[in-house]
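Bit of a strange request maybe. I'm writing a small parser for C-alpha cell strings and I need a real example to test against, not something I typed by hand. Could someone generate the C-alpha cells for this chain?
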Amino acid sequence: MFNLFQNIHFDWLSRRRLFIAVSVVIMLAGLVSAIGRQLTPGGTDAFNLGVDFKGGTVATVKFRNKPSDEEIRAALNNTGIFDAVLQSSTNRPDEMLIRIPLLEGNTGGETATADQTQAQVQQGRARVKQALDSFGQEAEGEATLDTNPNAVYKIIGTDSVTAIAGSQIRNQAVTATLLGCIGILLFIAFRYDWTYAAGAVIAVFHDVLMVLAFFSIFQWEVNLTVIAAILTIVGFSVNDSIVIFDRIRENLVAHRKESLFKITNDSINQTLSRTVITAGLVIFSVLSLVIFGGEVLRSFSLALLVGLTLGCYSTIAIASPIAIWWQDKLGGADVKETLVPQRKEKMASAARSSVTRRPVTR
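Reply from user aminoacidic:
Good idea to test on real output. This should exercise your parser:
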C-alpha cells in the first residue's frame, strides 16, 4: 500500500488547544456575522437564502434560438438578478424556466396577499423581460414567434413560487441530520465506546457549523443543493473518524503499557497517509467543480469544498482530542474493564479505564 508519510511522529494532542481555538474563532465569526446582519437596520439576512427557501417568480420562456445558460445568466446579472435558477426543458429544447428570487419591496411566503403576489409576479416578469431584451424583442400580446418573425423570444407564462416546499425540505433535512447523528452515536458507542461516539458526533456538528459560518460570512447562496452537500459532509467526516478510532483500538491491545495520549498520537500518524490521500483526492475533485462547474453547481461545490476540508481537519484536531480528553477526565470513574482474551489480564491503567476495549477480529 502506498504510504505518503513514513515514520512521522507529530504530536497532535499537544496542539489540541490551538486547533480548538481556531475552530472557535471561525464559528464565533460566523455567529457574529449572522446576528450582526440580522440586527442591522436595513441589513441583509443572516444567510443568503435562494429561491428554494425564500420564494420568488418563475417565468417560462420560449426562444427562437435559445442562448446559452451563461449568456442568459449574464443578462440577468446586468439587471441586478444574481441568484436566478435556470432549468431547461428536456422535451422542449427551445423553452426554459427562469426562477428569480423575491425582489426588493415584495412580500412572499404564506402571509402574502393576492395583490402582493400579483405585484411580485408582474415585477418579476418585467425584470426578466428587461434582461432578455438584450437578445432582441419579445413577441408581445397575442403574437407568437411564428407570427412575429422579428421576435427572438416570448414569455409564455409566469407564476409565483412560494417558500413552503423549501421550508418543508429544510425541516426534513435538519431532522435527517439529527437522526443520522443519533444513529452514529449509538453505533460507535456499541462498537467502540460512548466517549468515542461523543467525539465523532461533536466533530460532525463542528463541520456543519463551520460550513454555515462560511456561508454567512461570505453570503454564498444557500439552496437545496447545499443541504445535500451538508448531508454528504456528515458521512465523510464520520468515515475518517472511524478509521482513526479503529487504529486506536488496535494499538490499545498491542501497546497496553503506553499512555493513552501516545497511543492516540501514534494512531493519528499511522492513518495520516490514508486520511490525506483519500480526502485530498476528493477535495481536488470538488475543487474542479468550484472552478469549472459554473454558477449552477457553485453553492453545492463550495459547501463540499469547505466541509470536506474541515472534515479532514476535524477528524484529526477535534474528534480524537475530545474523545481522549473525555476518557482522561473519566479515568477514575467506576467503569467496565475488559480482559484480554486467553491471558485474562486487565487491559488498561486507571487513566485509561473508561474505554471499553474489544479485541480486533480479523
